Amino acid sequence: MRAMKPAALVGSLTMMVGVALASAGVPARASTDRPLDPFWAGRPSYTEQTLAMGGDGVFPNYRIPALAVAPGGDLLTSYDGRPTGIDAPGPNSILQRRSTDGGRTWQPQTAVHAGQASAPISGFSDPSYVVDRTTGTIFNFHVRSADVGLMGSHPGVDPDDRGVLHAEVSSSTDEGRTWQHRTITADITPDLTVRSRFAASGQGIQLRHGQYAGRLLQQFTIVTASGDFQAVTIFSDDHGQTWQSGRPVGSRMDENKVVELSDGRVMLNSRDSGRSGYRKVAISSDGGASYGPVSVDEELPDPANNGSIIRAFPDAPAGSREAKVLLFSNAASQTERAHGTVRASCDDGASWPIAREFRAGAMAYSTLATLPDGKVGLAYEPGHNGIVFATFNLAWIKGMCTGIEPAQQLTIERGSRAASSIRLTNQWGPVQKIGAVRVEAPQGWTVSVGQVGKLLPGRSTTLPLDVQVPASGKGGSYRLPVVVTDRSGRTATGSVTVVVPRIPSEVPGRIEVTGGTLTNPRSTYRVGDRLDFRYRVSNLSDAPTTVTPQGNLRGLDPAVDAQNCRWRGLAAGAQYTCSSAHHVVTQEDLDRGSFTPITTWTSVSGEDTTVVEHRAEAVSLG
Fold first, then answer.
1. Rounded to whole angstroms, how far apart are CA atoms 583 and 200?
2. Which residues contact 582 (CB under 8 A, 6 or more apart)?
3. DSSP annotation string for 88-130
4. Which residues are catalytic?
């Protein structure tokens, strides 16, 4: 291919972006003599509707959304229908709904593969789509279970072994209307050191560029003989006729997704079963067959939950600035499944300066897909019993592509100050007219940062930064948010890390427990009534810690109950809510006239252990 001159290349990008905007309902400007702002142009738009909600008379529980655009343009969403409300080995069904008008209306739900509640029980859970744009075949990966779930599975590949949690893929050659099913446990996990496996729900990808163009990728999590979780890419180079496993990556991984970067590399983005409070990331240079070192992305907070990552412009040419734009969705919290948020990166995921919350309350799994009209589809769980579908355009996110890079991490003693700098880069364009740059800090701190009037496309500027910590400041590691706002109100965010050295009393593992509040009070009580309690646990130190509670309540200790309030790897400065703690009223309680919840919370961080005893207010039962 003949190399373009720079001016011709700019014109080519402008034309391509103009077409993309026209398809999204955004008028494209014909003039190419000035920078365009296609990514954030147009009137913001966000709409949503409920596709399934437990208690509708069909299934009591719906979970785990998947989303795909069929080759013909129809939109497909898939999810679990759970008759018993539990994950595998429940007799669950993989369900599907179809939209022929871009998600405005939806046909009734059908079954991709229906479970069986009578003996011999079988179930199917956790769907994920992969679409082959070359052949038109649609794949739906999911779990096939019989007698065991994820952790109860034993090593094995015999498809008739009911003690193995199996991998199944259903395929369709008629736009997802009919399906054929195939068990691929032996194909993808022939190594009998693998105890269990499951497809990461949501959506896999087909590579578009480079040496591995056309390859189909679906992400899996495997459980090793020791019980560790690893991520692995399952791929096919023959359009899904055969599937093979890449090299497992990482430790304490979990549900994970991949996205093709602008240079053809593949980025893996994973939930962390070690509960660091952030997402884990690794890069592949061989089409997902293997990955480099795993790192923690501290710009992506996560409470150990499933998320989604896609290219905003999936058909953009390799190496173009459009190809570098990624979208990410998850519950943007380190401690609870809430604050559903969409983020955008303009530099292949190196930074995430743009974010907008779409749901403030409970929000669990989510998945994204770019739609044929240029909008973005979002399927998510509003809690853990329903499926909501939303569409939004990129203007709705209301951010700007401004890279925010601090010069270094600062270490500041109490009662002193330190100087540094922050580098701002206009990653996209057009000219960014900056209204303000501010750095948010704890109460009592003093922070000053330089200001800038405007940033030209592709240009950078360095602003001075001065931080003073008061003598009364607490030791720990602090991420100070940096917020850049332009004159129209769009924002970009980043952070600068400040470490205040601890004093001996501020040891790792130190926690605070509050609450023990009764959440379902009654006027009168009888034997068998359930008392539900809520606690709030805060990590007061600057190191991750594992918290294990015990006491005279159920729903506390993982050695006793499936639902429990243990938290592995609670991040420094993070909090979480324990809402599973409960007590069933006994005759002895009624005779006494009250019940007092008494709990002990043990926090372990390295060699440091802290024990907190908590006695909540007595509940009067008289």
1. 35
2. 530, 531, 532, 533, 553, 554, 555
3. TTS--EEEEEEESSTTSS-PPPEEEE--B-SSSPBEEEEEEEE
4. 87, 255, 365
Q: Which pair of tokens denotes residue 45?
A: 């738009």
End-to-end CA distance of the chain: 85
Query: Which residue(s) pair with 140 in the sheet?
Result: 129, 170
Contact 112, 133 (CB under 8 A): no
Rg of the Cα atoms in the chain: 26
Instruction: Provide the strand spans (E) within 316-365.
Output: 326-331, 338-345, 354-362
- Mean pLDDT to the nearest integer, 397-412: 94
Any idea which architecture 511-620 has in CATH? Answer: Sandwich (2.60)
What are the residues whose beta carbons fall under 8 Å from the beta carbon of 106, sequence distance 6 or more? 49, 51, 77, 97, 98, 99, 389
Is the pLDDT at 6 greater than 90, yes or no? no
DSSP state letters, 449-464: E---SEE-TT-EEEEE
Could you tell me if 127 and 112 are in contact, meaning their C-beta atoms sit under 8 angstroms apart? Answer: yes
Give the start-to-end residue ranges of the domains of the chain.
1-38, 46-397, 402-500, 511-620
The tokens for 519 are 């959440």
Phi–psi pair at 509, nearest 5 degrees: 90, -5
What pLDDT, in 10s, does the model give residues 274-332?
Answer: 778 899 999 999 999 999 999 999 999 999 999 999 999 999 999 999 999 999 999 99
User: CATH for 402-500?
Assistant: 2.60.40.10
Contacts of 315 by beta carbon, 8 Å cutoff, 6+ apart: 208
- Distance in angstroms (rounded) separating the CA atoms of residues 238 and 243: 8
Distance in angstroms (rounded) separating the CA atoms of residues 418 and 465: 8
Which residue in the block uniquely carries the two structure tokens 């129809």?
74
Instruction: Supply the pLDDT for residue 508.
Output: 61
Task: Fill in the DSSP letter of residue 192.
Answer: T
CATH number of 46-397: 2.120.10.10
The rounded Cα 389 to chain-centroid distance in angstroms is 16
With a CB cutoff of 8 Å and minimum separation 6, the contacts of 367 are: 65, 66, 67, 201, 202, 203, 308, 329, 378, 379, 380
- pLDDT of 604: 87
Beta-ladder partners of 56: none
Beta bridge partners of 233: 219
| Distances, alpha carbon 258 to alpha carbons 141, 332, 344, 459, in Å | 15, 19, 15, 30
SS3 322: helix
Q: Is the peptide bond before 301 cis (omega within 30 degrees of 0)?
A: no
pLDDT one-digit tens code per residue, 158-215: 999 999 999 999 999 999 999 999 999 999 999 999 999 999 999 999 999 999 999 9
Q: Which residues lie below 8 Å from residue 415, measured CB to CB, with a gap of 6+?
A: 469, 470, 471, 473
Q: Do domains 46-397 and 402-500 have the same CATH topology?
A: no
